[in-house]
């Protein structure tokens, strides 16, 4: 494969990829049901291969078969937006109460470009590529649902490798970054409800006050975590809301008080420990105050673990195709969660960050992914597409030479 030619072919698509990305940016949809989004994507790639649609959700697996037989590589682009009102001032801003604040509109355009590059060069493709257009990344387990419907098996074989790209809005455009092993955390929620006994505020001893118990639990839970979790395999538990009582009155002891927190861990052990040690602590603390505790963990994303060989391939290909200075090895994992982890648990592969901040924005004005003011530079689309396509060609080339 001539990767310089691939890069030139991608550059020729750049203007169209920007159009695709900006069209998608204006029609953001939420969760697992993204009919307009998927229709726009399939308008670009539906004719390039065999399309398998998801059941009871909008997902597509596009299978592109090479002229030469061989194994399969999976490439993944996620498609869902967030429930946030856009305030970027861009002339292609969304206005429907949702926003592509995590850059998934760029991922789709990159996926479209990669699919087109692969189809155009399929005479040199030694196997198959399955392009995953996935809904519901933002807490809806879209990847897990696609896997449960066997959409990764549409070629008849389990893929030998999987790759996906995620853009970020804080660094100057163009650098690819990743790392071997753990790259992202398991992320999930815990909702805790403490149940006491309601009563008159003048006589709290005749009631069982859940508010005091809640305060004591929250004031000591971080100390508990420090002393009971491995400092070299840390967890994050951050309380996002608390609820108790009624702001119309002060003379009532409410029956219940509750809080919700996000919980992050970086290993299987850490994940399991959060599910056993945290509930035991809360239950014991609640019991000390005469309260019952109901503790509910949401399904969490898995810890995202990159395959070592796949990262070697990513590093080599970025340096070969774009130059030495375009690859950055991440020293540490990040505490964000990502359901690509489910795909990488099933298929060895790599997740790759691609920085895409608007270089014209001064540093202090740049806002993180998920912000209502997050801005992404779509000049990276052709390079992202080149990278995904190059990884597929390279992995299949290597497999055929074995
Ligand atoms: Zn996100
Ligand atoms: Zn995302």
Describe the structure.
The chain is α/β, with parallel strands linked by helices and 402 residues long. The protein has 9 helices and 16 strands. The strands form 4 sheets. An 8-stranded mixed beta sheet has the order 1-2-4-3-5-16-6-15, with helices on both faces. A 4-stranded antiparallel beta sheet has the order 10-12-8-13, with helices on one face. The chain has a two-stranded antiparallel sheet with strand order 7-14. Strand 1 and strand 2 form a beta hairpin. The two termini are 17 Å apart. 45% of the residues are buried. The mean pLDDT is 97.
At a glance:
This protein has nine helices and 16 strands. With 402 residues, the chain is of the alpha/beta class.
**Helix-strand makeup class:** alpha/beta
Q: Enumerate the strands of the largest sheet in spatial order, edge to edge or round the barrel.
A: 1-2-4-3-5-16-6-15
Helix content, binned percent: 25-40%
Q: What is the CATH architecture term of the largest domain?
A: 3-Layer(aba) Sandwich
Bound molecules: zinc ion
Q: According to CATH, what is the topology of the largest domain?
A: Aminopeptidase
Q: Mean pLDDT, as a whole number?
A: 97
CATH superfamily of the largest domain: Zn peptidases
Number of strands: 16
| Low confidence ranges | none
| Large-scale geometry | elongated
Number of helices: 9
